């Protein structure tokens, strides 16, 4: 952007300056009076000429459970990177509620503001115990001096207890997290997200590498979370998507190809073409 | 509750600290109260040597804190150590007064040689002990703050960070070699006379410095324990194991790294400040990149990520160094290199890990 454009941008008549924007904070209620909690509009990202996202538009309602599917390279992970602040888009806007511009916030601010993310490969703190993993994820003051001197309050400890029950790791709470099974690690990571008290959960391939029973359990867990949280699930496993999905979005080449119930989407000729070829 | 957290849960650390405390009590007695022809007599040489090792142990502690816990490999901790040493050296130089070779009341000998007519501004205030001590902490702390802020903000990690810290200490070495810098150039600062009015050549002063080093090590160890057992310490371990997860859990990773780096730099600086009056000289050679690498070898040998392992490592490697450089100086570098290879291949947890393995075997039988 050259200086002239920059100046023009600054003096735009509908300019909203940063200092009027609210700071991301748990106490700030996310403004969802118009329905959606997450607005992703006209977002484009390109890496060395390759368009990972191409004018992507996506609206997530408060409390909804949304599944996002799409072939490899459709831009699912890039979309999550944009929402969580890891990647900055070339164009477009991303708003959390109506007042938080996510493109102006850094990763930890977005996380504190109420968007939790689970990675494709379970990412937990292997050298720490299950309890300590949840302790670190707990929504609280996360500044250096505070963590040096203060321990958790009783209320927060109760919450850890609750989450331990929910993810079924009550017995293993002293265990080193690195020693858990693959499925248990996935659950622990989901538990860590819950400790953050997020409004939106982004879950990347939660059932990859799980046994049938574990998949069932995870489906139950995610559906029970919807309502209190908005949950966005990216998944390849169609059977799993069918078992939890109410609304499905299909991504293809960086933009939305189709949106609707699982049946609508599966019968859409364009989707069939993308998935099955000519 | 705090003693439980800092001490009782840390058996190895208690053992090592107990030994340090014991040395701090016994060595002065054997040096001062026992006649020099008795077999129990500890020579002045040994006191000075052990005092040096105590400073190295504190230095190793600072390296372990940043490398073992946060996973940030700094190959430039020698820079902070030396800067602390120089700040102390400047105080000691100002104490010489007009007893220098040229007898100038205010200027150092090397400044007289350079034909300077007044004290440079950055030498002002160093005649006061408290000011010098403040600078011991402030100068390396500030350097670490600026350097760390730039590096961590740009997300420089791993081997790249190690390389730029090497460059940092190398650049400082070249700068301090220059005579015009006003730090004595090649010769550095030496020929100290007294500290706080005590004669540096006196036996009691040397013993005093020795005891001070031992207590600095104990206090430094406690401070490190306090950090690593707090929630902040767990965040730091979390950053080491899964940095992006920590970030997405809402922690500002950079500020955690930065504070730990600054604290570690200050700890190294205190070690340097205690080291200089005991060896009687500080010169740019201390900035040598090789020194900084050696510190990492101490920690690796002792066992990283345990804190007390760093103390064990600093003592054993430096003892070996003293032994070999006395009996066959040319083999020492080969032994150091061999040691590093051996530890990396066979003892990933260092000497401390070895004891751990034995004691666990003992438990099973």
From TrEMBL, chain A:
<protein>
    <submittedName>
        <fullName>Urea ABC transporter ATP-binding protein UrtD</fullName>
    </submittedName>
</protein>
<dbReference type="InterPro" id="IPR027417">
    <property type="entry name" value="P-loop_NTPase"/>
</dbReference>
<dbReference type="GO" id="GO:0016887">
    <property type="term" value="F:ATP hydrolysis activity"/>
</dbReference>
<keyword id="KW-0547">Nucleotide-binding</keyword>
<dbReference type="InterPro" id="IPR032823">
    <property type="entry name" value="BCA_ABC_TP_C"/>
</dbReference>
<keyword id="KW-0813">Transport</keyword>
<dbReference type="Pfam" id="PF12399">
    <property type="entry name" value="BCA_ABC_TP_C"/>
</dbReference>
<dbReference type="Pfam" id="PF00005">
    <property type="entry name" value="ABC_tran"/>
</dbReference>
<keyword id="KW-0067">ATP-binding</keyword>
<feature type="domain" description="ABC transporter">
    <location>
        <begin position="38"/>
        <end position="278"/>
    </location>
</feature>
<dbReference type="GO" id="GO:0005524">
    <property type="term" value="F:ATP binding"/>
</dbReference>
<dbReference type="InterPro" id="IPR051120">
    <property type="entry name" value="ABC_AA/LPS_Transport"/>
</dbReference>
<dbReference type="GO" id="GO:0005886">
    <property type="term" value="C:plasma membrane"/>
</dbReference>
<dbReference type="InterPro" id="IPR003439">
    <property type="entry name" value="ABC_transporter-like_ATP-bd"/>
</dbReference>
<dbReference type="InterPro" id="IPR017781">
    <property type="entry name" value="ABC_transptr_urea_ATP-bd_UrtD"/>
</dbReference>
Automatic annotation (TrEMBL), chain B:
<dbReference type="InterPro" id="IPR001851">
    <property type="entry name" value="ABC_transp_permease"/>
</dbReference>
<dbReference type="InterPro" id="IPR017778">
    <property type="entry name" value="ABC_transptr_urea_perm_UrtC"/>
</dbReference>
<dbReference type="InterPro" id="IPR043428">
    <property type="entry name" value="LivM-like"/>
</dbReference>
<feature type="transmembrane region" description="Helical">
    <location>
        <begin position="296"/>
        <end position="320"/>
    </location>
</feature>
<dbReference type="GO" id="GO:0005886">
    <property type="term" value="C:plasma membrane"/>
</dbReference>
<feature type="transmembrane region" description="Helical">
    <location>
        <begin position="207"/>
        <end position="228"/>
    </location>
</feature>
<feature type="transmembrane region" description="Helical">
    <location>
        <begin position="258"/>
        <end position="276"/>
    </location>
</feature>
<feature type="transmembrane region" description="Helical">
    <location>
        <begin position="12"/>
        <end position="34"/>
    </location>
</feature>
<keyword id="KW-1003">Cell membrane</keyword>
<keyword id="KW-0472">Membrane</keyword>
<feature type="transmembrane region" description="Helical">
    <location>
        <begin position="332"/>
        <end position="355"/>
    </location>
</feature>
<feature type="transmembrane region" description="Helical">
    <location>
        <begin position="128"/>
        <end position="152"/>
    </location>
</feature>
<feature type="transmembrane region" description="Helical">
    <location>
        <begin position="40"/>
        <end position="59"/>
    </location>
</feature>
<dbReference type="Pfam" id="PF02653">
    <property type="entry name" value="BPD_transp_2"/>
</dbReference>
<feature type="transmembrane region" description="Helical">
    <location>
        <begin position="159"/>
        <end position="177"/>
    </location>
</feature>
<feature type="transmembrane region" description="Helical">
    <location>
        <begin position="66"/>
        <end position="88"/>
    </location>
</feature>
<keyword id="KW-1133">Transmembrane helix</keyword>
<protein>
    <submittedName>
        <fullName>Urea ABC transporter permease subunit UrtC</fullName>
    </submittedName>
</protein>
<dbReference type="GO" id="GO:0015658">
    <property type="term" value="F:branched-chain amino acid transmembrane transporter activity"/>
</dbReference>
<keyword id="KW-0812">Transmembrane</keyword>
């Amino acid at each position: 952007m050259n200086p002239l454009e920059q100046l023009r941008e600054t003096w735009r008549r509908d300019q909203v300056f940063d200092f009027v924007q609210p700071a991301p904070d748990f106490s700030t209620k996310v403004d969802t009076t118009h329905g959606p909690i997450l607005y992703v509009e006209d977002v484009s990202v390109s890496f060395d000429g390759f368009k990972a996202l191409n004018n992507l538009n996506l609206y997530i309602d408060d409390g909804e459970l949304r599944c996002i599917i799409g072939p490899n390279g459709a831009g699912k992970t890039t979309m999550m990177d944009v929402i969580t602040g890891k990647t900055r888009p070339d164009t477009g806007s991303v708003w959390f509620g109506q007042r938080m511009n996510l493109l102006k916030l850094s990763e930890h601010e977005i996380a504190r503001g109420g968007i939790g993310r689970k990675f494709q490969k379970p990412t937990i703190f292997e050298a720490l115990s299950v309890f300590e993993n949840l302790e670190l994820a707990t929504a609280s003051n996360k500044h250096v001096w505070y963590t040096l001197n203060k321990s958790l309050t009783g209320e927060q400890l109760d919450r850890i207890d609750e989450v331990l029950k929910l993810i079924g790791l009550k017995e293993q709470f002293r265990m080193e997290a690195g020693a858990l099974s693959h499925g248990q690690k996935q659950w622990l990571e989901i538990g860590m997200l819950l400790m953050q008290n997020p409004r939106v959960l982004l879950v990347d391939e939660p059932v990859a590498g799980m046994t049938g029973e574990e998949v069932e359990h995870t489906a139950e867990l995610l559906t029970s979370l919807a309502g209190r949280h908005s949950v966005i699930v990216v998944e390849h496993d169609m059977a799993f998507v069918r078992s939890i999905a109410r609304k499905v979005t299909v991504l293809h080449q960086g933009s939305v190809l189709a949106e609707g119930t699982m049946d609508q989407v599966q019968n859409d000729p364009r989707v069939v073409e993308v998935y099955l070829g000519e | 509750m705090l003693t439980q957290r800092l001490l009782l849960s840390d058996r190895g650390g208690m053992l090592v600290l107990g030994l340090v405390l014991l040395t701090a009590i016994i060595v002065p007695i054997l040096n001062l109260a026992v006649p020099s022809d008795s077999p129990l007599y500890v020579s002045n040489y040994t006191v000075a040597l052990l005092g040096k090792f105590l400073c190295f142990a504190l230095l190793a502690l600072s390296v372990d804190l940043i490398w073992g816990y946060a996973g940030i490999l700094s190959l430039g901790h020698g820079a902070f150590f030396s800067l602390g040493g120089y700040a102390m050296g400047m105080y000691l130089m100002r104490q010489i007064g007009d007893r220098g070779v040229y007898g100038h009341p205010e200027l150092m000998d090397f400044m007289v040689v350079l034909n300077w007519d007044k004290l440079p501004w950055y030498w002002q205030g160093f005649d006061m002990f408290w000011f010098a001590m403040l600078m011991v902490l402030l100068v390396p702390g500030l350097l670490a703050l600026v350097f760390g802020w730039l590096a961590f903000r740009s997300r420089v990690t791993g081997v790249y960070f190690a390389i730029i810290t090497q460059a940092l200490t190398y650049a400082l070495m070249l700068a301090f070699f220059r005579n015009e810098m006003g730090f004595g150039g090649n010769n550095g600062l030496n020929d100290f006379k007294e500290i706080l009015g005590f004669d540096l050549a006196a036996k009691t002063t040397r013993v005093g410095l020795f005891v001070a080093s031992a207590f600095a090590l104990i206090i430094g160890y406690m401070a490190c324990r306090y950090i690593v057992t707090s929630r902040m310490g767990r965040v730091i371990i979390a950053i080491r194991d899964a940095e992006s997860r920590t970030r997405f859990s809402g922690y500002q990773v950079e500020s955690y790294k930065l504070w730990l780096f600054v604290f570690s730099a200050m700890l190294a600086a205190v070690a340097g400040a205690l080291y200089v009056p005991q060896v009687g000289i500080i010169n740019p050679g201390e900035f040598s990149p090789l020194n900084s690498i050696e510190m990492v070898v101490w920690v690796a040998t002792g066992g990283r990520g345990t804190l007390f392992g760093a103390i064990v490592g600093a003592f054993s490697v430096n003892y070996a160094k003293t032994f070999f450089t006395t009996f066959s100086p040319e083999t020492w570098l080969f032994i150091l290199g061999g040691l590093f290879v051996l530890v990396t291949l066979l003892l990933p947890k260092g000497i401390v890990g070895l004891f751990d393995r034995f004691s666990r075997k003992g438990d099973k039988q």
